[in-house]
């Protein structure tokens, strides 16, 4: 038997990176997974994997999120993954950058959680997971103003849900990775004026000598989604390769 046998899991941003790795890991452990994303082409790559069904959903759109929730009679685990990284200080952040980042990184999690929590509460022993960022816990990273602000809000949202619904049997935890080797990160590196220097700068803070893989984050997500973590709620689960040491 798989560690997630019989569980129904819905997640966002499943086409690439952490979301994709988590969707595959959940399915391998026996879950029935609804994998959503706005990228139909990349999402199609998950089609045919046993236990996974895909659906194009823009999780910043209330009507699409509510329609997705209506399609599910039950949900055991909601995993909010969608995120966007804006590069720059507050002086480099225009109102449109602020609004877009907050919409993707925070509003999407608000909409998904609000739409799915009634179904999750009905089961009483269920899980909500969100992705934040390790570096927000006790330090800052340069040129990540609105991104850092939005991910700090995700931690607040996680703790709020955990506190408000603990008596209904709901657990809510936040996964806080360090630098994860994903297509998104590789794309941001290549977009820099000097990609080689950007890559070197990223690697310089990796005390293990390598970046985290999306699969390694997915293993942690499987634990948090499973009954093995039944006494874990309201936490920031750090997976950073010792970055904070």
From TrEMBL:
Its EC number is 1.1.1.104, 1.1.1.30. The lineage of its organism: Eukaryota, Metazoa, Chordata, Craniata, Vertebrata. Its main location: cytoplasm. InterPro entries: NAD(P)-bd_dom_sf, SDR_DHRS6-like, SDR_fam. The gene is bdh2. PANTHER family: DEHYDROGENASE_REDUCTASE SDR FAMILY MEMBER 6, DIHYDROANTICAPSIN 7-DEHYDROGENASE. SUPFAM superfamilies: NAD(P)-binding Rossmann-fold domains. GO terms for biological process: lipid metabolic process; siderophore biosynthetic process. The keyword Oxidoreductase applies. It is found in: Cytoplasm. Signal peptide: none annotated. The keyword Flavoprotein does not apply. This is Dehydrogenase/reductase SDR family member 6. Belongs to the short-chain dehydrogenases/reductases (SDR) family. GO terms for cellular component: cytoplasm. It comes from the Eukaryota.
């Amino acid at each position: 038997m798989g560690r997630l046998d019989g569980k129904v899991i819905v997640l966002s941003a499943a086409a690439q990176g952490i979301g994709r790795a988590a969707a595959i890991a959940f399915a391998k452990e026996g879950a029935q997974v609804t994998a959503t994303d706005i990228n139909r082409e990349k999402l199609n790559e998950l089609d045919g994997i046993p236990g996974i069904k895909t659906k194009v959903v823009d999780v910043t759109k209330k009507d699409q999120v509510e329609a997705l929730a209506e399609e599910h009679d039950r949900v055991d685990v909601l995993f909010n993954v969608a995120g966007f990284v804006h590069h720059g200080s507050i002086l480099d952040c225009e109102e449109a950058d602020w609004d877009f980042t907050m919409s993707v990184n925070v509003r999407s999690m608000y909409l998904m959680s609000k739409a799915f929590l009634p179904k999750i509460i009905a089961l009483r022993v269920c899980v909500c997971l969100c992705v934040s960022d390790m570096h927000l816990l006790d330090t800052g990273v340069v040129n990540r103003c609105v991104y850092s602000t939005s991910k700090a809000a995700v931690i607040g949202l996680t703790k709020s849900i955990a506190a408000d619904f603990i008596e209904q049997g709901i657990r809510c935890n936040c996964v806080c990775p360090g630098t994860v080797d994903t297509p998104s990160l590789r794309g941001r590196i290549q977009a820099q004026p000097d990609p080689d220097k950007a890559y070197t700068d990223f690697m310089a803070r990796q005390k293990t000598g390598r970046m985290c893989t999306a699969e390694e984050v997915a293993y942690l997500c499987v634990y948090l989604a499973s009954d093995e973590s039944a006494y874990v709620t309201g936490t920031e689960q750090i997976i950073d390769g010792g970055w904070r040491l």
